[in-house]
Design brief:
The complex is a heterodimer of chains A (386) and B (249). With 386 residues, chain A is an alpha+beta fold. Chain A is built from twelve helices and seven strands. In chain A, the strands form two sheets. Chain A has a five-stranded mixed β-sheet with strand order 2-4-5-7-6. In chain B, the strands form four sheets. Chain B has a five-stranded parallel β-sheet, with helices on both faces. In chain B, strands 10-9-8-12-11 form a five-stranded antiparallel β-sheet. The chains are: A alpha+beta (386), B alpha/beta (249). At the A-B interface, helix 6 and helix 8 of A face helix 1 and helix 2 of B.
Chain lengths: 386, 249
């Protein structure tokens, strides 16, 4: 694993998942789709021509013209149906945009197509001067409307099925990717928790307390147990999201141990807004940020530093903010191991929230470093609940 | 005759670890604690100022690492390293026959180490002081000297005089004309620090000094037999044989 060299700054905001799933789905129509559409249209024309040709009084040329007269408006109608269905595949919901609009547009288009077909047939009869004048039967009109409606619905449905299929495949790929990323995040957290340096130093400190302050030693060992238990539980249950409360407790267990190691050098200010702890956050989102700040921003400085953690809601967003003050720690943080953990977290946010979450990280003017994660404010779902 | 106690310093950034060392040192009246510091910069200042005879030095420190500290001090105390986890450093300590304690360590291990250090301090020694040994061992350049422990003594070994090195489990058995010495490190760790022009790993468990080779002769169709100046014979692996043929050409 190579150390990441990410240049991070506050002005350079990388939106997570700038290319949304919808944008991708609407962007491309492949050659196979085009060929299938042309074939279907040719078939439609052929069927019409065949029906005309069944009548013994009509010559073949007339049958072909009749086929085209029906096929061209219906073909255009199918294209319109397809386009309308494709537009429906956008992040919109609601009766008006999803049902009423397309229905109305469909009715108008079906009317247009039926009229066009009838007009073309009329033109054909009139221009090419058959003996019989063109007559309009109610039955023919009904038939024209029926066929057009059928074609509209079929083309729209075909488009929809295709999009659903693509969406499902994307969803599967996304799930697989989320799984892989979570595994990596777990590994990096486990590696960090079991970061030999951290672990052995904690054990060494606890060893030192065993005689002098047995109660503190007990509390420290309990904390270490909690830390490992949470990491293993997320791993075992394959949890992607959990209540912020659990992440917060995990972070506290970690900080308590760091506090034992670093003593007065580590000053901590933490603030959790009323009520936000019950909202959902990705697992392993808070602690890795805190650990980065401690490891690269505070531990390397003799004077230590101040770490601030704040979680709050802003409008429909949940903000997780971790910052450390002063020193030249920011430089080492941007270039240190923090890069890898941050990158994994960024990717996970993209996969889990699809552009609805973002992460900003960068040095501050006073020499500190700040990371903010913005998430949609969401309740904890069933599976992530307990 | 009363012996002056050895002036001792603690360099350790974690308060708990510091107070533990302090309490351990109380058990050893022959040591006098003269100072404690928590970061690398201060350590350099105070070591040169207080000139202790013995320093307990953490490897990972704020500001300057323990190794940087050694690089900058003028005074040359005996050094015992303490480290939580640093495989590279541990291998280097072995190369310099330096004393170290791996965290977590308790009273027993600390006492054992102190006994070793005390005997060595009382023996006096013609070997270079530990900061110098550490600098050589921890520096990136190929080693010219390494140090082996023989009881409480430290024996310097000129790398040029090594005939061969043989793996013995976790140990490396270094063969020099005076007899073999054991170093507690793997062949891989050792070979990384030897001059590649001169030392070749001819086999999974053997490093050979090319300057100590009397002749090479075919062993079978793919492998070479290496005969050393002292008459010892070692069969080189196929890949090493190929490498040796190229070197000879």
């Amino acid at each position: 694993m190579c150390p990441e060299k990410e240049r991070l700054s506050f002005t350079d905001v990388t939106p997570v998942g700038a290319e949304s799933a919808y944008g991708v789905a609407r962007a491309r129509i492949g050659l196979p789709t085009v060929l299938a559409a042309i074939s279907a249209w040719a078939l439609l024309v052929a069927v019409y021509a065949f029906i005309f040709a069944l009548s013994p009084t009509l010559p073949l040329s007339r049958a072909i013209r009749g086929g085209l007269a029906n096929g061209i408006p219906d073909g255009l109608l199918a294209l319109a149906g397809f386009t309308i269905a494709r537009r429906l595949d956008a992040p919109r919901t609601g009766f008006k945009s999803m049902v009423a609009g397309p229905l109305l547009r469909g009715l108008v288009l079906i009317g247009c197509a039926s009229t066009a077909k009838t007009l073309l047939l009329w033109a054909d009869v009139t221009l090419f001067g058959d003996k019989e004048p063109f007559r309009l039967f109610a039955g023919i009109i009904a038939w024209q409307v029926f066929v057009s409606a059928l074609i509209y619905v079929t083309s729209a449905a075909a488009c929809h099925v295709r999009l659903i299929d693509r969406r499902l495949r994307e969803e599967e790929a996304r799930a697989a990717r989320a799984e892989a990323l979570r595994a990596r995040a777990e590994l990096s957290v486990l590696r960090a928790q079991l970061n030999p340096h951290f672990l052995f130093n904690v054990l060494h400190s606890v060893l030192g307390m065993v005689r002098g302050d047995p109660a503190l030693a007990e509390a420290a060992l309990e904390g270490l147990g909690d830390l490992l238990r949470y990491a293993l539980r997320v791993h075992r249950d394959g949890m992607d999201r959990t209540a912020l409360r659990h992440e917060w407790e995990f972070m506290e267990a970690y900080l308590n141990l760091e506090k034992i190691r670093l003593g007065e050098r580590l000053q901590i200010a933490r603030r959790a807004q009323e009520g936000v702890l019950d909202h959902a956050v990705p697992t392993f989102s808070l602690q890795p940020l805190v650990e980065n700040a401690v490891r690269h921003g505070i531990a390397p400085r003799a004077a230590g530093g101040r770490l601030s953690i704040e979680v709050r809601s802003e409008g429909s967003e949940l903000h997780l903010e971790v910052r450390n003050d002063g020193g030249d720690g920011s430089r080492s943080r941007a270039e240190g191991e923090g890069g890898m953990g941050q990158r994994i977290l960024r990717e996970r946010l993209e996969v889990l929230y699809r552009g609805r979450a973002s992460m900003k990280a960068g040095p501050e003017e006073n020499g500190g470093y700040r990371v903010v994660i913005r998430l949609p404010l969401e309740p904890v779902s069933e599976e992530a609940g307990s | 005759m009363t012996v002056e106690p050895v002036r001792t310093m603690i360099v350790e950034d974690e308060p708990e670890a510091r107070s533990m060392l302090r309490s351990f040192l109380k058990e050893a009246p022959w040591l006098e604690l003269v100072g404690e510091v928590a970061d690398g910069k201060q350590a350099v200042e105070r070591i040169d100022q207080l000139e202790p005879g013995l320093v307990f030095l953490d490897v990972r420190l704020p500001e300057l690492s323990g190794l940087d500290v050694l690089d900058r001090i003028r005074h040359q105390p005996e050094v015992v390293f303490t480290t939580a986890y640093d495989q590279y450093a541990v291998a280097a300590f072995e190369l310099g026959a330096l004393d170290y304690l791996v965290k977590p360590f308790g009273r027993e291990r600390f006492r054992g180490m102190l006994q070793r250090v005390r005997r060595r301090l009382s023996l006096g020694s013609e070997v270079p002081p530990s900061p110098e040994r550490a600098k050589t061992a921890l520096g990136g350049a190929p080693l010219r000297r390494l140090f082996a422990r023989a009881g409480d003594r430290i024996v310097p070994i000129a790398v040029a005089s090594i005939l061969r090195v043989q793996a013995r489990g976790d140990y490396a058995e270094v063969h020099v004309p005076g007899g073999p010495h054991l170093l507690h490190l793997t062949l891989t760790e050792l070979v990384a620090r030897l001059d590649p022009e001169r030392f070749i790993q001819v086999h999974r468990s053997h490093i050979v000094n090319l300057d100590a080779v009397r002749l090479l002769r075919p062993h079978d169709d793919r492998r070479l037999m290496i005969v050393l100046v002292n008459g010892e014979e070692i069969v080189a692996s196929r890949s090493a044989s190929e490498l040796l043929r190229k070197q000879v050409r």
